[in-house]
Amino acid sequence: MSILTVLVGQCGIQVGNEIWKRIQKNERTYSRDGYARCVGVDTEPKVVEKVLSNNAIYRKSNFVSDEEGRGNNWAFGYLGKPPQREQQQQQQRPAFSTKWRPTKSLIYQRTLEVIEEEIKRSNGFIESVIFINSLAGGTGSGLGSRLLEECKSAFSESVMYFINIVIGPNNFGDTAVSCLNSLLTMSTLIKYSNLIIFISNQQIFDFLSVKKKRNQSVTLEDINTFIADSVGLLLQYGTLPCIGCKLVSSLAPHGDHKIATLINHNVTVDDFQSWDTVLRGSVRTSLMRDAVAVNIVACCDEGDVHDLSVKINKIDSSCKALSFDGSIIPNNPSRAGRKEILVSMTSPSTTLLILIPMANQAAVKIFVGAYVHWYQKFGLSIDFFKDALQVIKSVVITNEQYLSKS
To answer: What tens digit of pLDDT does each residue of 35-65 get?
Structure first.
């Protein structure tokens, strides 16, 4: 069964483009005419144009852009321009202007049309739609939330699973409103997504900073490449027929436990550490964090498959997690000699570490009214924030109760 990736915002498109460099070409990931089964959308054309100019695998009509960014404002991304602002901008532009044309619909509506066309190319059914976007920006967070919500409503009979891969900001502090955007996004994902895979920019930055030499700094490209390596392995490079089903069943065993994290990201096994060392360390970490679900994906040469299968099966028999799944991908000739492993988990304690700081920071700003007017001018009422806090609070209480009983 086929999967469709939807890349939202600058972060989503840049990371998603790196991931597609690692996806193997087959009938599950590419359409019959040879184009990647991928949709991209950004509210500014620059990133879209750059990706399309450097890659022939994408169908150009599958990428949608607008003329104005969303300024780190979730409400602007989710609701679009207020009618009076759209009308004012139209009046200010001369009729002979060639740099502007009136849009026939909102950007999320145009994106939905593109997604619908891709579903039709897959005989009217997609196993999984995988969204990739940032948690705290304007376009990735706001527009990404709107697209998930609308897709769930419009295509629930044509799509089996909706999966979100979200990249969190640096300690929810990239901008003054990062915590507010993150709160609104996460509450939407909790309501509509089957599985949320949370990737922390801060953790990746810290990890790469240790590995870099003293005179080298960690770049955005380094972070995007690192994320792409991890997610590419998590998606098993597009080789598995039902990857969405496998991920949801192994990492989201219950509706209240569906926020997964990557423990070791993409670890290359070398002469200095064995499979045993990496497996024991990763699984020990997951069990220490009260994991309810553990997923292992390893990539190795054919000669190592049997030995590694035995080791993973031993872990399965001793693992206390409610859900455990282990997969092995044999290397293709171009990747001969590489030994990689990725361990993911769903853990109540880790979920609380993600949600509580985010909610606390946002609640303080909402209580004193800080920056709330930025959202209200686009039509977002204070009730949106209150509802989002209530959704997060409900998940926090559920996970705290689980930990108190375990």
So the answer is: 999 999 999 999 999 999 988 999 999 999 9
